[in-house]
């Protein structure tokens, strides 16, 4: 059974940004070989990290939306974690990601409503 996933990868900033698509394709071959599909590959480029990872302040971000089986997704995650080119990875099922975004939006709306009522009382 296939599911939709979102993958975020932070590559080591010491590699050339032009090589990122090539390195990413090597990892994503696991998905395509297992009859998965790649919907969207978005390379954000070099960004400052929120905190230091392996004594690095920057990383090269890439986000990939794909459809695959859980087995091929686990293999992709394993290979990414073994690579020295990758600082961090996160794979989410799209349903979970959508639920997280909705929950965060709900929290921020509730916070805005509380601020508005507190401002009206003052």
UniProtKB/TrEMBL annotation:
InterPro entries from the UniProt entry: Ribosomal_bS6, Ribosomal_bS6_sf, Ribosomal_S6_plastid/chlpt, Transl_elong_EF1B/ribsomal_bS6
Pfam families, per the entry? Ribosomal_S6
Q: Which domain of life is it from?
A: Bacteria
Gene3D superfamilies in the cross-refs: 3.30.70.60
Query: Function of this protein?
Result: Binds together with bS18 to 16S ribosomal RNA.
Q: Which NCBIfam families match?
A: S6
Which protein are we looking at? Small ribosomal subunit protein bS6
Species of origin reads: Microbacterium elymi
Q: Taxonomic lineage of this organism? A: Bacteria, Bacillati, Actinomycetota, Actinomycetes, Micrococcales
Gene (name only): rpsF
């Amino acid at each position: 059974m296939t599911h939709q996933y979102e993958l975020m990868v932070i590559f080591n900033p010491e590699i050339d940004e032009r090589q990122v698509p090539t390195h990413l394709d090597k990892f994503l071959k696991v998905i395509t070989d297992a009859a998965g599909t790649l919907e969207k590959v978005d390379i954000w480029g070099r960004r400052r990290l929120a905190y230091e990872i392996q004594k690095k302040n920057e990383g090269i971000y890439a986000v990939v939306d794909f459809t695959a089986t859980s087995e091929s997704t686990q293999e992709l995650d394993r290979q990414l974690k073994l690579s020295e080119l990758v600082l961090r990875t996160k794979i989410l099922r799209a349903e979970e990601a959508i639920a997280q975004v909705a929950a965060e939006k709900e929290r921020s709306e509730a916070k805005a409503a509380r601020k508005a009522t507190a401002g009206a009382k003052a």
